[in-house]
Amino acid sequence: MEISDKLLCLFNADVREEGDRYLVEVPKREVETGSIEPGEAYRVALISRAVESPSEATETEQPTSEPQPPVEPGELRYVEIEDIGKQGDGIARVERGYVIIVPGTEIGDRVKIEVSEVKSNFAVGEVIEEEI
Prior knowledge:
Radius of gyration: 17 Å
Number of strands: 8
Strand order of the largest sheet: 3-7-8-6-5-4
Low-confidence stretches: none
Largest sheet: 6 strands, mixed
Shape: globular
Helix content: under 10%
Strand content: 25-35%
Oligomer: single chain
Structural class: mainly beta
């Protein structure tokens, strides 16, 4: 599956029936981190819960038992610093609790970062815009 470079956020949600319409709830953290704004219109893509069979996977995809990091090097993100690490760097958490270490930040800072390094269990981001 190919993901657009214009992807703002990614989360799991239940579809709920309400009268003559269906609702998908956006987690509060996506609005609070600045990924999206209330009152704006967005395109929504729904991805099936069905799992691909091995014959459907492309030859270039390598199967893995571990989830892949939810960020990529060079990606821009709005994050809120939730904690401070042992070395004094700010820590933000994104999808599935994945950690992004952001040097030079404090708890409560809301910043725009560029992901500079990605590892299987954490990433490092550099502040490109302070206090959003």
